[in-house]
Design goal:
The complex is a heterodimer of chains A (528) and B (335). Chain A is mainly alpha-helical and 528 residues long. Chain A has 3 domains: 178 residues, no CATH class; 181 residues, no CATH class; 133 residues, no CATH class. Chain A is 73% helix and 0% strand. Chain B is globular, with a radius of gyration of 23 Å. In chain B, α5 packs parallel to α8. With 335 residues, chain B is of the alpha/beta class. In chain B, β5, α9 and β6 form a beta-alpha-beta unit. Chain B has one domain: SGNH hydrolase (Rossmann fold, 3-Layer(aba) Sandwich), CATH 3.40.50.1110. Classes of the chains: A mainly alpha (528), B alpha/beta (335). The interface between A and B is medium-sized, with 24 and 22 residues.
Chain lengths: 528, 335
């Protein structure tokens, strides 16, 4: 049941109806019931894994509360000289409980998602050593949204451990936080402190929320149906038969895939956020106009933002702010140089982040390479930054000039597109082949003789894609200036407003690539 | 005072929503008309033109209509039935036709024809992977009927300004009468033999609901219903057979399962009678199914033999084409 299916829209309408007719204090139960129904209809018996995660983090939270409460009471009666020792014992207990919960949840994910990959890698290694493979291949299925809800689950446990907030004693609240049906498939990765109360407290019917939510859902459908699914036709042809294509075919397929992925993922997020907004719930943003980024790091601050912030908070800080690392950093600063003292620990922590980001996307070495590709680019950027500043000063190049910014935009866009090519290619070697083949036999002849219009997208499809991409760009630039398109439209008189609404709806219905003869681009992040 | 004001706002908003939705429906009707093909010829872009060839036949001349998915249009031959028994039939089956679509196309048939017997290939009872998608696809069929824009939205690419508001002229006629003719022969890996079991795979609930609608329509129009299953080795089994048999018994219908026909004259030869390794019959397999079916219809239903009737002389001409096609013999295709 995808977000664009009638079944999902039916479920959303039904849950909205029941949510609004029940008394405020019971409304969260409607969300929980429909979320579990959604999960069960999509995953069947695999629902047991999310139930296990729910119970495990709920109990962990209670245990951490208990330890904290015990300490608060006990520390009053402990002599001053023993306080430090007692505190250390408490800290150890909390750490033990937290680590256990993290390992349990991570363990389920690693086993289901990575067992065969790790086993295959071990077997490959054994083969190299002329030993017979010993790790069996298991027939494992991934429960819906496990990569997303596991991260939410871990964030809850770690936040409680770190004392960011107290754990809740309401199991329903934890359960709803993990399984809330709009965000279970592709995120955004929820944080308990930002989301749980909103989900749990009943929201009154709000006409504006309903209308704005519906508008956002249609905007998401525009991205998905008109752009992603249309681009998918050419993208699938070229990537599936990559040996047959080179030059401009590969360049166009790469550009269209970038458009596809952005339109599909951000479109899905619009549907998710629009669905939540109908209930009066605000979810974290996952995209903020990523293609106007001037650097790759900025791109990743604007692309899949909840994933980036999760890795920042729970991997980067965990590594770089650990006692061992602080000591290590201090030593380097003292013995080598202050630059290296800040650089090396950051580089190590970043490696952990980008290795994890890569493998989070999929159990294959290609995704590891994908993560490390961005790691290397960012590392090089950090290393050459001082030199770049000096060179620019020497040649009197203003780094804030329009020309330089444009150069940065184009450079980032190219680097991101290469990353996308790697992301979509079946294997790392097919990526290398496609990257190389772009430069062999490159010419505009396929455009001139029309052969590029015969591999999935005809000239009219291209017209729709180009106009659609320009609309996205225009909306993006407008919003970057701090405006909101939806609010701007809402301020217009009823005639203009309704023309805009009808236009959006009929553009989706007429120019959407759905129905017979089209192969929809699956919700790509749903498979992670 | 405040409450009164709020109530007023609510009423205004409600009116706005209703007017907006009414506007949407009105615009959808207009756009649907504009995008619907105005001809039933294949080049018009109409969905399954061959299944809609009954529009091209003179009104009220078709006595038997066959519904179902690709198994039905591959495994039933109206021309064979005409030549051997003189029964006038048409296959209004479509690829992956679900029961919602069956109902919709049957309604189209009823506007133009007055059939006496409806034959349903029960393979479509289990169309698509699960109950939710079966309901979804069937409801979509209704949506497409009310708002063809959802089905033909892509015609913005091919339609012309003149065509947008032109009148519909559905008169495409085909000599295959909806059958998918194929001489291709690709043997199945092994003969499809159903293992007998007492297990029952009940007809899915949603299919029962849609079948009840179809049966009611037939009852209202005095049309008899016959259930068949045309052999296909990938989708059929004995438990389903038992399920359909129960359903047929409950509704007082005949059911012929061609996978259980053992008479050498009619039994499917899995080496020669399939065009794609057992998923669909070729026209030689269809000939066997149709001949058996013809005998059964002759014995059980009051369908007239129209051979020799001047009004059907064109069917004799059409048969010549079919005969010439079948005479060419089987064409082996790669394994």
């Amino acid at each position: 049941m995808g977000y664009t299916s009638f079944a999902y829209l039916g479920l959303l309408a039904a849950s909205f109806f029941f949510y609004m007719i029940l008394p405020l204090k019971h409304r969260w139960k409607v969300l929980l019931l429909f979320s579990y129904a959604f999960y069960f209809l999509n995953s069947g018996k695999y629902i047991v894994f999310i139930l296990l995660s729910t119970v495990s983090i709920y109990l962990t939270g209670l245990m951490l509360n208990k330890i904290d409460d015990g300490f608060a009471v006990a520390k009053k009666g402990i002599p001053k000289e023993n306080k430090k020792e007692y505190k250390a014992v408490i800290a150890w207990q909390k750490k033990f409980v937290c680590v256990l919960a993290v390992l349990f949840n991570l363990g389920i994910l690693v086993f289901l998602k990575y067992f065969n990959f790790l086993g295959g890698s071990v077997n490959g290694l054994l083969k190299l050593l002329h030993l017979s493979p010993s790790v069996p291949v298991l027939n494992l299925m991934l429960p819906l949204g496990i990569s997303f809800y596991t991260m939410s689950a871990i964030s809850y446990v770690v936040d409680v451990y770190r004392g960011k907030y107290r754990a809740t004693d309401q199991l329903g609240k934890v359960a709803l936080f993990l399984v809330f049906f709009p965000h279970i498939v592709e995120g955004p990765i929820g944080r308990f402190d930002l989301l749980a109360d909103q989900l749990y407290e009943g929201h009154k019917f709000n006409y504006n929320n309903m209308m704005l939510g519906l508008q956002l859902i249609f905007w998401g459908l525009f991205k998905k149906f008109v752009l992603a699914d249309r681009a998918n036709m050419l993208v699938t042809t070229v990537f599936k038969n990559y040996m047959e294509y080179d030059g401009i075919y590969v360049v166009v397929a790469m550009l269209l895939y970038t458009l596809l992925l952005y339109a599909e993922f951000s479109g899905c997020m619009d549907i998710v956020m629009g669905s939540a907004q109908m209930f009066g719930i605000t979810m974290s943003k996952n995209f903020e106009r990523p293609f106007i980024s001037k650097t790759v790091s900025e791109f990743w601050r604007r692309w899949h933002m909840t994933l980036g912030s999760w890795f920042r908070d729970y991997v980067f800080y965990s590594v770089s702010l650990s006692k061992t690392f602080m000591k290590f950093s201090k030593k380097i600063k003292e013995k080598l140089s202050p630059f290296l003292g800040s650089m090396i620990p950051a580089a190590v922590a970043m490696f952990a982040v980008w290795f994890s980001t890569g493998i989070w996307h999929g159990a294959s070495w290609k995704y590891v390479a994908y993560g490390l590709y961005y790691y290397v680019i960012m590392l090089i950027g950090m290393l050459i930054e001082p030199a770049t500043v000096k060179v620019c000063e020497k040649i009197h190049l203003n780094r804030k000039s329009v020309g330089y910014r444009l150069f940065q935009l184009v450079r980032t866009f190219i680097l991101v597109n290469i990353g996308m090519l790697m992301f979509r290619a079946d294997t790392f070697s097919s990526f290398m082949h496609m990257l190389g083949s772009m430069f062999t036999g490159f010419s505009f002849a396929p455009v001139a003789d029309g052969s590029i219009f015969e591999i999935g997208c005809d000239i009219k499809d291209f017209a729709v894609l180009i106009i659609g991409a320009l609309i996205l760009l225009a909306v993006g630039l407008y919003e970057e200036k701090g405006h909101s398109v939806r609010e701007t439209v809402a301020r217009q008189n009823i005639v203009v407003r309704w023309i805009c609404y009808y236009a959006l709806i009929f553009i989706v219905l007429i120019f959407g690539a759905y129905g017979r003869g089209y192969q929809a681009a699956g919700f790509i992040y749903a498979q992670f | 005072m405040e409450e009164k004001k709020n109530r007023k706002i609510t009423i205004i908003r409600l009116i706005k929503v209703i007017v907006f939705l009414a506007g949407f429906v009105g615009l959808s009707v207009i756009v649907s008309y504009m995008l619907t093909p105005k001809s039933s010829h294949p080049e018009s872009g109409i969905s399954y033109p061959s299944a809609r060839g009954f529009y091209g036949e003179p009104e009220n001349t078709i006595d038997i209509v066959v519904l179902g998915n690709s198994c039905a249009y591959s495994g039933f031959s109206p021309m064979e039935l005409w030549n051997k028994f003189g029964f006038v039939s048409y296959v209004a089956s479509e690829g992956n036709q679900n029961l919602g679509e069956s109902i919709c196309i049957f309604d189209e048939v009823l506007k133009h024809q007055k059939p006496k017997l409806l034959i349903i290939d029960v393979d479509c009872f289990w169309q698509t992977k699960n109950e939710i998608s079966r309901i979804e696809y069937s409801l979509k069929a209704y949506l497409y009927r009310w708002f063809p824009m959802f089905k033909y939205h892509d015609r913005w690419k091919t339609t012309t300004m003149e065509e947008l508001f032109a009148d519909k002229q559905y008169n495409y006629r085909t000599t295959t009468k909806g059958q998918f003719l194929s001489r291709d022969t690709k043997a199945a890996e092994k003969a499809f033999v159903m293992e007998k079991t007492d297990e029952v795979e009940e007809v899915p609930k949603s299919s029962v609901v849609f079948m009840n609608i179809l049966l009611k329509k037939c009852e209202e129009n005095g049309i008899e219903v016959l259930l068949i299953d045309i052999p296909a080795n990938h989708s059929w089994n004995y438990a389903k057979h038992n399920g359909v048999e129960e359903f047929a018994k409950e509704n007082g219908l005949h059911f012929i399962d061609f996978s259980l026909v053992t008479d050498e004259k009619y039994a499917i030869n899995w080496e020669k009678d399939t065009r794609d390794g057992g998923r669909h019959l070729n026209s030689y397999g269809a000939r066997k199914v149709t001949r058996y079916l013809g005998e059964f219809i002759k014995e059980n239903y009051p369908i007239e033999d129209k051979r020799g009737d001047e009004a059907y002389s064109q069917w004799d001409e059409d048969y010549k084409e079919y005969k010439a096609f079948m005479k060419k013999g089987r064409k082996n295709v790669k394994k």
